[in-house]
Design brief:
With 235 residues, the protein is an alpha+beta fold. The chain has helices spanning 13-24, 86-98, 123-131, 190-199, 208-232, and strands at residues 38-47, 52-61, 67-76, 107-110, 135-139, 157-162, 165-171, 180-186. The protein has 5 helices and 8 strands; from the N terminus they run αβββαβαββββαα. Strands 3-2-1-4-5-8-7-6 form an 8-stranded mixed beta sheet, sandwiched between helices. The model has no long low-confidence stretch (mean pLDDT 95).
């Protein structure tokens, strides 16, 4: 995939916050022009002991949701955990993976926030701007905003407002299961984000692309750490 290298990662925390505010102005919330053929799910895992970030991007045919490919990579983590700056910690390894992808991805679902962020630029939005590809933030918990209680019936949703502005929807993807916080990242609107998350939710809480990516990145992390341990601690 082509990556628009809009900035470097060697910046201070204050510069990162300023950059988020600037980049959020570039986000376009618009109806997708075509039905996606390939949907990707992306997720990250971290090893505190080794200070390594592991990433996986899993590709699925849509609407059948059959897995067609998996890409992965790991690298040193250069940004410490700072609330609100997660994308500067996780985006570098994800972008290194997307750079490997040969297929034409039409839609990306990321375990994280889209515009539901204090400065309007969560991980999904940040990745979306780099790739100029529709992205959706599929978060397990709320970062900002308020919403009414939601009846836990699949398909139900309630708007999440932050500073008197719509930033996400809390969406029930399975009966009697905790909902997800769905926010558009880039090049998709609120309706489309909720619609595609529900279409990719196959009886589980998480949509299949991010659910499988979550499983695969855990396996990948275990595999790589095992290989590293054999080098550090040979039998």
């Amino acid at each position: 995939m082509h990556i628009d290298r809009i900035h470097t990662w060697d910046i201070t925390y204050k510069e990162a916050m300023r950059l988020q505010s600037e980049l959020s102005a570039r986000i376009k919330l618009t109806r997708m022009k075509k039905i996606p053929k390939i949907v990707a799910g992306a997720d990250i895992a971290y090893s505190k002991r080794l200070n390594l970030s592991f990433g996986v991007v899993a590709l699925f045919e849509f609407p059948a949701l059959e897995q067609i490919n998996v890409y992965s990579a790991y690298q040193k983590t250069n940004m410490p955990y700072i609330p609100g700056l997660l994308s500067f910690r996780e985006a570098p390894v994800l972008l290194s993976i997307f750079e490997q992808v040969e297929e034409n991805i039409d839609l990306i679902m990321i375990d994280g926030q889209g515009i539901a962020h204090p400065r309007g630029l969560g991980l999904a939005s940040h990745i979306g701007i780099f790739l100029e590809t529709p992205t959706i933030g599929c978060a397990k918990s709320r970062l900002v905003g308020e919403h009414k209680d939601i009846d836990l019936i699949r398909g139900n949703k309630e708007p999440v407002n932050y500073k008197d502005k719509l930033c996400a929807y809390v969406v029930c993807t399975r009966d009697n299961v905790k909902p997800l916080y769905i926010s558009p990242g880039h090049l998709i609107d609120f309706q489309g984000a909720c619609e595609y998350v529900l279409k990719c939710s196959d009886g589980f809480r998480l949509p299949k692309p991010t659910r499988i990516a979550d499983q695969l990145v855990a396996e990948y992390k275990k595999q790589i750490i095992g290989q590293i341990n054999k080098v550090i601690y040979p039998p």
